Amino acid sequence: MKGEKPVIAITMGDPRGIGPEIIVKALSQISLRQTCVPLIIGDLNILKKTARALKIELPFAEVPETGRELYAESIPVLSLTNLSLAERLTPEKEQECARASFLYIEKGAQMALAQKVAALVTAPVSKEAIWRAGIPFRGHTDYLARVTQTKDYAMMLAGEKLKVSLVTTHLPFREVVNYLTAERIQKVIELTAKGLRDFFQMDKPHIGVAALNPHGGEKGLLGEEEEMIRQAVQGVKREGFALSGPWPADTIFYRAYRGEFAAVVCMYHDQGLIPLKLLHFEDAVNITLGLPFIRTSVDHGVAFDIAGQGRASSISLQKAISLAEQTIWQKRPRGN
Q: Quick one: which of 305, 299, 266, 269 has its CA closest to 282?
């Protein structure tokens, strides 16, 4: 409807982690609630307990999956669990929390696919804990791609000074080379170009592509994968964006930081995340490119070591919510 605030689903993450804390802190910023309706998918009991501990008053209200009229004067919570967490958790309780965190993701994805919400924002979960609870799970990105039957997708991490996209994500390092193909690299380049337009309204961005081996392989002396990357770069149809590479990874990120590249396509997870987190440890946003709906996330993990201490920063979550909201308005037809 014209002028109606979009509903953004926010999954609570692992109840044992900092997810509840950063949600409470983020939503205490009234500005975030002025242009969207944050619908939390999680556990109302945990959220209320967290708010009390932080001495933050928020108008949480439990709502059914449908019933937007209930959202107006409150922060709606679709409460899927009713957990009670002791100071020391048994292994059984830890698994219960892990299964709960997956349940929140599952419901959020279902609602986004059914267009019951305009975007999905996710708080952190523990991949290890979910896996140990008997659920095959390698992370939000791969799971969301699978349940939406999305063949071509990519992970982008974005900050003001640096944006990176990953050709491979949560793989053991020894498997990276076997997974890299010219076709996969090309798809991530194309997704990156579209992501820069859709999320950041960039007109004709210049994308740089990182090499895999030291010094860009030194023309085969230090590795031959760069020839495949070079062929991938040459084979991309450059419609509305500039492209160059492969560039040595020890210089490309500095060049991007200085403004030469709008984003860097990286060959593996830590190649992109080390420089990204060096610059944007607290304020980067994780974006899944290629999905049929908008999905953003924090750029950090569950931080069990500081959970419940009131020390967690909510900046990344605030940025993730704001980016999702801005992208929703950008995609809406004019006048709506």
A: 299
In whole angstroms, give the CA distance from residue 73 to residue 4: 14
| Residues in Cβ contact with 325 at an 8 Å cutoff, skipping those fewer than 6 apart | 6, 8, 35, 36, 119
- 0.90 exceeded by pTM: yes
Q: Of the candidates 252, 156, 169, 248, which has an alpha carbon nearest to the alpha carbon of residue 198?
A: 156
CATH for the 154-285 domain, from 3.40.718.10, 3.40.50.2300, 3.40.30.10, 3.40.640.10: 3.40.718.10
Which residue(s) pair with 39 in the sheet? 9
- At residue 11, the 3 state secondary structure works out as strand
The amino acid occupying position 172 is: P
Rounded CA separation 231/93 (Å): 51
- Residue limits of CATH 3.40.718.10 in the chain: 1-150+291-336, 154-285
| Residue 84 φ then ψ, to 5° | -130, 115
Tokens of 282: 């607290």
Q: Report the CATH number of the 1-150+291-336 domain.
A: 3.40.718.10
The mean pLDDT value of the chain amounts to 92
The neighbour count for residue 201, using CB atoms within 10 Å, is 10
132-148: per-residue pLDDT in tens? 999 999 899 999 999 99
Three-state DSSP at 57 gives coil
Of 296, 297, 302, nearest in space to 328 by CA: 296
CB 59 within 8 A of CB 28: no
In the chain, count of helices (H) and strands (E)? 11, 12
